[in-house]
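I have been asked to look over a protein record a colleague put together. Thanks in advance; the entry in question is below.
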Amino acid sequence: MRLKLNGTVAKAILVSLLAMAACGSNSTDTSKFVGTWKFTSGTITVNCPGSGVQTINVTGNAVVSKGTASDLVVVDQDCSLKFDATNATTATARPSQACTTTGSSSTEVDTYSDVVFSTQDGSTGHLSASLTGVISSGGSSVTCTATESADIQKL
């Protein structure tokens, strides 16, 4: 999912949140997380200097797969994040993973910090995330922060 901030494309946290469902090499059963998930409600709150705070509804899908170098991997468009299962109902993204998005006149690098995906039943779940995005265009850049809280449902 992408955010538009005053004409500048900003990468959404969709991947991070769902990526949390992905995990590394432990004995926790991660089968509840694997599959395609749809965002059913939630928002991303973005704060950029000079632009103020914007709230954007979360939409779209994310695909969670078993990983080889991590328990799970969440892939959304051009971004892939590795997750480790804390237990059978919670997965967290590995810290400091980044995704780069290049638009026609800008580049954005989003670095994810706290991303958590939880599901009790493997059918519905909740994602929360925070990130820092650096948007560069025309020789200048701005650093924005974002938080996301969203409910999801497995398709």
Observations:
- The mean pLDDT is 84.
- The two ends are 17 Å apart (CA to CA).
- Residues 79 and 99 are 6 Å apart (CA to CA).
